[in-house]
Amino acid sequence: MTAIREYYAGMGISPAVYDYGEKVCASLRGRFAEIDETAEYNQLKVLAAMQKNKISAEHFASGSGYGYSDLGRDGLEAVYADTFHTEAALVRPQITCGTHALSLALSSCLRPGDEMISISGKPYDTLEEVIGIRPSRGSLAEYGVTYREVPLTPEGEFDLPAIRAAIGPRTKLVEIQRSRGYLTRPSLTVSRIAEAIRCVKETNPSVICMVDNCYGEFVERLEPSDVGADMVVGSLIKNPGGGLALTGGYIAGTNECVENAACRLTSPGLGREVGPSLGVSRSFFQGFFLAPVVTAAALKGAIFAANLYEGLGFSVTPGGSEPRTDIIQAVELGSEEGLCAFCEGIQAGAPVDSYVTPEPWDMPGYDSKVIMAAGAFVQGASIELSADGPLRSPYAAYFQGGLTFPHAKFGILMSLQRMTEKGLVKLP
Ligand SMILES: *Cc1c(COP(=O)(O)O)cnc(C)c1O
């Protein structure tokens, strides 16, 4: 049998890179044990929800046509609602992505003359067009919904006095983004989100608190819906799909919010009653069942990368020992060659398309070239190991995912291997 160190060597990881990686891994044992315990806790949550709803083989049958009484769809939505501790949930392949789910959640609860406030500063890029911050066809602005923004404090915390002051008679909904997205601000933990929601509800209890939960699901033991959020919203090709969902999005929340969203997704009068599961139920159930441990794997990968590169003098956010509430990791490589070498390594470590070399390209909507690495089973799935970054200072790679920790570890070691081969880094 080949020793693991030689196996790595055979796959292109030099003994020096491997040994440094092992040292970093050994230093993270306590941290990884905590993550395993959170996964265990969250696994029980999902398992209990499946047992309570008596999930059985019938739920995996494929619904078609209108999808009236689609058992799989209804069972899955009950399982999501029980896991997120909400009254209801909408979990559909007809919701095409995270942006669609967020757009649906917003547009279904807001009416002409209403105002929404983002209380975590600038929202995720794609929401700018949904809201109409950048003029766009069909935006909320076109329907007479106004928008305000309360920036985070310079320390990256909610500005509670400013939030209180911003809420007015027309404020119908506040949006909170848990993950940092592609900004340098810190991600917002569930306990921080709890404080912000308390502040909003004290000011006006009827304001709807919606959380963009993308990349956050199962990272902590509590979800924003456990601390007062009326709606949590996310994508199934991120954490809750567990790597098995081929598409989809979810909204979990109060009956009122979920019913609003259903009537907007399908049609007034039809709501949740239509929308066939089209054969995806098994993968949605199974992916959700696996999601706590898949998320834990991605989280360990992020923490491994942070510590590996921090130890070599690179600036990383979050820092190697900071607490986490999402699976995103940024590593500032400091040069174009560094960023490209990093992404080439992630690509070379992938199970799919490992033989291709990622090239920087002019992506629509960006002001500089962008390089992306992804060798995924599901196109664009960022719960799978993936990295991207704009070719401008500080040349940060945004890195996330990994369906298993051994794979995340391999991809990250491969990125470091490429960096060392190009003389961009010296091992200690
Ligand atoms: C991924 C993501 C979204 C939605 O993106 P899609 O690519 O449309 O799925 C929204 N907000 C945050 C914070 C995200 O990470």
Poorly predicted runs: none
Bound molecules: pyridoxal-5'-phosphate
Secondary structure category = alpha/beta
What strand line-up does the widest sheet have? Answer: 1-7-6-5-4-2-3
Taken as a percent bin, the fraction of beta residues is 5-15%
Any idea of the CATH class of the largest domain? Alpha Beta
Helix tally equals: 12
Using only C-alpha atoms, the radius of gyration works out to: 22 Å
Instruction: Indicate the CATH topology of the largest domain.
Output: Aspartate Aminotransferase, domain 2
CATH superfamily of the largest domain: Type I PLP-dependent aspartate aminotransferase-like (Major domain)
Keywords summarizing the entry:
single chain, about 425 residues, Aspartate Aminotransferase, domain 1, Aspartate Aminotransferase, domain 2, 2 domains, five-stranded antiparallel beta sheet, 12 helices
Explain this structure to me?
α3 (about 30-50) runs antiparallel to α10 (about 280-310), α4 (about 70-85) packs parallel to α10 and α5 (about 100-110) packs across α9. This protein has 12 helices and 12 strands. With about 425 residues, it is α/β, with parallel strands linked by helices. It folds into 2 domains: about 5-40 and about 290-420, Aspartate Aminotransferase, domain 1, CATH 3.90.1150; about 65-290, Type I PLP-dependent aspartate aminotransferase-like (Major domain) (Aspartate Aminotransferase, domain 2), CATH 3.40.640.10. The mean pLDDT is about 95. β11 and β12 (about 395-400) form a beta hairpin.
How are the secondary structure elements laid out?
Elements: H1 4-10, H2 15-27, H3 29-52, H4 71-84, E1 88-92, H5 98-109, E2 115-118, H6 127-131, E3 146-149, H7 160-166, E4 171-177, H8 190-203, E5 208-212, E6 231-235, E7 249-253, H9 255-265, H10 281-310, E8 315-317, E9 329-332, H11 336-348, E10 370-374, E11 386-390, E12 396-400, H12 405-421
Helix pairs in contact: 3-4, 3-10, 4-10, 5-9, 10-12, 11-12
Bound molecules: pyridoxal-5'-phosphate.
